[in-house]
């Protein structure tokens, strides 16, 4: 069959000519050659006015995917279809499409740092098949190239996912430097490429490979220092840039698969992500790194290598790494899962933050071992970021675009709060709400997103009966949890909606029906709740005893608060220790109308504001999330007191309010 030129030319589907992107390696999906017939060919990618060499990518039944290196600025990319075996009317004419792409690195954003933890007395090699040991692919130099290549694959994958979810080509950037590049095996050369920090640990091989701390050991000793803490220690000892706010993908070099009579597990490996303070870290072991590509030219081969894993010397991680291409999926993909945690993504119902990384190969190749059909974007299955992950990334500082409005520092750490308004629940977040998730027994069932910048949603009212009716269908009386993500990246949860409804309303003498705000801090149900009213009524309902002053004691947390009334009575909560400061209320009707609180497991610190416009100084420290407790709609409601719990510290704190 003979074809005409226009029916055979490469056509790029996932990116427009002249589009602007923000990553060095661009994932392209397209069609080329005769459609709807079986044939195999190749696409050659040539870069105009750059020293990056040409690369070749397979075409399978007209489908192709390729990874294209870009230089900052304008890039003219030639996509040339190998016409061997294809007959068409202009046989001398090349089958070439030119794609123009603008690459603008987002240098103003914090980067993702790549790091390798190396034991103090490391042999600087990884587990690898014998044939790769002979070629030196098990050595540290090779591992650096593999991690660098994996970082660019993560970036290309994530940028494509953000685009498919209609958030533009936003993506995290990698920390880069001008050094000898390894992304191509043809012309290494000096280029701006991803920097890989080598973290020389103060811990020995024996300590890192201790079976008692191996994550896969069901009898591991949680009293010993774990691998995550060791990696954190290494970063802190290393210093710049890890002494400031940063995000790190950390590979443990010395992981080793132990295959002996009394032990079959990967020592020196942990798959964990998260962090605290300035350091956000995702870590993974090197036990599957032997299967990763070092260069773009190796990506397709590595994701299609059907060599069976020799389980006498190599790990078949969780039984899902029985061949080398599956090792590549799990190694790069599960590591990306931990990087997702580092960037704030929790576990999700599907995708990378579930176990969708087992399909990671499908993002980068159109062929899969033992699969007769081409892999199109609709066939990629688990290889995606869940929509809730995407929304978190949309407002993450690592993903900001130049066109995004400036970040407000006023509400930088301020979390959302929940308020009961009769039959509604009110969610307030001054920094703006991006996502509300509905969980039933900790499983995400549904979500509402607020992602349009022209609709800056700071308050949302939801009808409680509709929530319960919708989600209790999964199982009567199962716990419904609301999780709110704000645009400043804070998250705050109402852990049990039904309990909140049961316990939020009280009937009190004189006051009648009153409502408690959700508490801040960590509830310990063994503790007795205290209640403090700004006016304590005595026998004659027209007379009340006023709250006159508060004495707050604190060091790292709020240790104790003592409340004093005008009749000489007082109430003490927590312990009598630490710094001591006092706030006196003015004569008349001065009362608390607002609490600014910083809390985590305990109440770290707070400041009060009164109806006379006066504010106290800040009591305590800042170690948790920021909240503002202020009664909603002060025309309808008024605050009448505080409640909470205390033991060695002030554990929880909240407001009591009622209809006027």
From TrEMBL:
SUPFAM superfamilies: Mannose-binding lectins, Metalloproteases ('zincins'), catalytic domain. Residues 504-659 form the Jacalin-type lectin domain. GO terms for cellular component: cytoplasm. PROSITE patterns: JACALIN_LECTIN. It holds the Pfam family Jacalin. PANTHER family: MIP04191P (PTHR21054:SF2), ZINC METALLOPROTEINASE-RELATED (PTHR21054). This is 15288_t:CDS:1.
